């Protein structure tokens, strides 16, 4: 059986990314897919982009890639800070990332994306309605078939669910988890690129990492919204929830 590690939402958190990659290596998994949001929020966007580009076989675009590399009228301080440090070559790479990637595994058509195969801003939480979730399986214009499995990130909270003979899987966040204060990623296992039905599994992995080292990196680089970022790393609670 083949194994694929699926990571998402690194957000420039290198201690978390390195811990996850070490765990993947320890499990002897050689194929890694990334679901976007490499940059933004955390202090080390450049390093995160460079590492993911080197280590990951497939990378799709997240909303932060769009903010930083495509949305020219976005003047938020945090976006401008990351755009400035990334430089032209990395921005060009981020701009060229696809919205989704699809492949067969154990007879299932799997489509991976950041938030939705059609839109990096189509946010679907675990508590979303049936209609909101089933829409994720619909074929984008460039594809011919609805998917059997959708794997996504964006919401920074891992979960899996099965309904209507289909499977939905969110791998959570490597660098900015907003449930547990541990990095999260997913593993899928089956026969890669096989159209024949066979055993298929999905699992969520939690990896502890040096949070205080990540905090210190953020302090050293004086990132925008520093306090909010540090609070999220230490508590696993989204800044928007604390403000309500």
In short:
The chain is of the alpha/beta class. It is about 35% helix and about 20% strand.
Description:
The protein has helices at about 15-25, 45-55, 65-70, 75-95, 130-135, 210-220, 225-235, 240; strands spanning about 1-5, 30-35, 60, 100-105, 110-115, 150, 160-165, 165-170, 185-190, 200-205. It has about 240 residues and is of the alpha/beta class. It has one domain (about 1-240): Metallo-dependent phosphatases (Purple Acid Phosphatase, chain A, domain 2, 4-Layer Sandwich), CATH 3.60.21. A five-stranded mixed sheet has the order 3-2-1-9-10. Strands 4-5-6-8-7 form a five-stranded mixed sheet, with no helix packed on it. α2 (about 45-55) links the parallel β2 and β3 (about 60). α2 (about 45-55) runs parallel beside α4 (about 75-95). The mean pLDDT is about 95.
Q: Runs with pLDDT <50, length 5+?
A: none
Count up the domains: 1
CATH topology descriptor: Purple Acid Phosphatase, chain A, domain 2
Largest sheet: 5 strands, mixed
User: Would you state the CATH class?
Assistant: Alpha Beta
Task: Find the CATH superfamily.
Answer: Metallo-dependent phosphatases
Based on DSSP secondary structure assignment, what is the total number of beta strands? 10
Write the layout of secondary structure elements.
Layout: E1 2-7, H1 14-26, E2 31-34, H2 45-55, E3 58-59, H3 63-69, H4 77-95, E4 100-105, E5 108-113, H5 130-134, E6 149-152, E7 159-163, E8 166-170, E9 183-190, E10 201-207, H6 211-221, H7 226-235, H8 239-242
Helix pairs in contact: 2-4, 3-4, 6-7
């Amino acid at each position: 059986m083949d194994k694929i590690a699926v990571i998402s939402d690194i957000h420039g958190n290198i201690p978390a990314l390195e811990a996850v990659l070490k765990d993947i290596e320890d499990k002897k998994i050689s194929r890694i897919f990334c679901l976007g949001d490499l940059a933004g929020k955390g202090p080390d966007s450049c390093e995160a982009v460079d590492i993911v580009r080197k280590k990951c076989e497939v990378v799709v675009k997240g909303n932060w890639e769009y903010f930083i590399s495509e949305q020219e009228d976005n003047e938020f301080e945090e976006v401008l800070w990351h755009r400035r440090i990334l430089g032209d070559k990395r921005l060009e790479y981020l701009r060229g990332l696809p919205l989704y990637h699809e492949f067969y595994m154990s007879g299932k058509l799997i489509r991976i994306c950041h938030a939705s195969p059609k839109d990096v801003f189509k946010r679907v939480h675990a508590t979303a309605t049936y209609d909101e979730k089933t829409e994720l399986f619909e074929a984008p214009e460039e594809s011919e078939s609805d998917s059997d499995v959708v794997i996504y990130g964006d919401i920074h909270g891992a979960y899996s669910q099965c309904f209507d003979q289909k499977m939905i899987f969110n791998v959570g966040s490597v660098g900015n988890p907003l449930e547990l204060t541990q990095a999260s990623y997913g593993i899928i296992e089956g026969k890669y690129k096989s159209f024949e039905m066979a055993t298929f599994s999905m699992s969520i992995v939690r990896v502890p990492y040096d949070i205080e080292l990540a905090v210190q990196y953020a302090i050293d680089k004086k990132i925008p919204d520093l306090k909010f970022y540090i609070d999220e790393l230490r508590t696993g609670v989204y800044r928007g929830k604390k403000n309500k």
